[in-house]
């Protein structure tokens, strides 16, 4: 039975690396995979997934208006699809998460989505919220805070390293813009005036 999986974490936990490795494992056995990434995430180039350790692969660039069920259904004309992978899954719309659930349920293709759970303000992304509600299996990918505890939150910084507390939910970036923290240290930097 095909399932919808959601692997989530903060920045710099290795989600893209895990996705690329899992896709490679399928392809190494002669099985076809289809990869997706948000079109506006062009850090490695539009339609390209890249990890911090140097792995990369071409992917289908999705936009909010794209129907991923229909896309995958159409791609099945070129042969069987063993698994579909979605990087930066927090950028999916709720409708697209439902489409991916239908891919697993009706097209019988496993879907593995990887993304952030929350933004720099500690709020769920719409795609992540829908995945947390609909995924058959949830997997936490762990990384650590500077104190050694599990990092569960992320802070956005400007070009000088100053913490940003307000702004648009979505701003693509990597190590130059985001730092992962445990909840306690996130609270310390995001709410410095709250008595501790």
Protein described:
This protein has helices spanning 15-28, 68-75, 94-106, 126-134, 183-190; strands at 4-9, 33-38, 48-50, 56-58, 60-62, 83-87, 111-116, 137-140, 153-157, 163-164, 178-181. The chain is of the alpha/beta class. The protein has a single domain (4-142), classed as 3-Layer(aba) Sandwich (Rossmann fold), CATH 3.40.50. A six-stranded parallel beta sheet has the order 5-2-6-7-1-8, with helices on both faces. Strands 10-9-11 form a three-stranded antiparallel beta sheet. The longest helix is centred in the first third of the chain and has 14 residues, at 15-28. The radius of gyration is 17 Å and the shape is elongated. The chain starts with a strand and ends in a 6-residue tail after the last helix. The mean pLDDT is 89.
- The CATH topology turns out to be Rossmann fold
What share of residues is helical?
25-40%
Task: Kindly give the count of domains.
Answer: 1
- In whole angstroms, how far apart are the ends? 49 Å
CATH superfamily: P-loop containing nucleotide triphosphate hydrolases
What structural class do you assign from the helix and strand content? alpha/beta
Number of helices, counting only DSSP H or I runs of 4 residues or more: 5
Give the H and E element order: EHEEEEHEHEHEEEEH
How many beta strands in the DSSP annotation?
11
> C-alpha Rg, in Å?
17 Å
Into which percentage range does the β-strand content fall?
Answer: 15-25%
Shape: elongated
């Amino acid at each position: 039975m095909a399932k919808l999986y959601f692997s989530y974490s903060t920045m710099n936990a290795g989600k893209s690396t895990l996705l690329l490795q899992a896709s490679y494992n399928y392809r190494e056995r002669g099985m076809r995979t289809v990869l997706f990434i948000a079109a506006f995430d062009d850090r490695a180039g539009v339609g390209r997934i890249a990890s911090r350790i140097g792995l990369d692969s071409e992917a289908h660039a999705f936009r909010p208006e794209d129907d991923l069920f229909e896309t995958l259904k159409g791609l099945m004309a070129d042969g069987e699809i063993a698994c579909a992978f979605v990087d930066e899954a927090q950028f999916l719309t709720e409708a697209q998460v439902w489409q991916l659930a239908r891919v697993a349920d009706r097209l019988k293709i496993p879907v593995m989505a990887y993304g952030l759970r929350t933004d720099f303000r500690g709020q769920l992304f719409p795609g992540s919220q829908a995945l947390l509600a609909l995924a058959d299996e949830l997997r936490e990918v762990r990384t650590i805070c500077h104190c050694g505890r599990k990092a569960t939150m992320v802070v956005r910084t400007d070009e000088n390293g100053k913490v940003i507390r307000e702004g648009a939910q979505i701003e693509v970036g990597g190590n130059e813009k985001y730092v992962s923290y445990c909840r306690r240290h996130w609270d310390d930097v995001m709410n410095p005036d709250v008595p501790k």
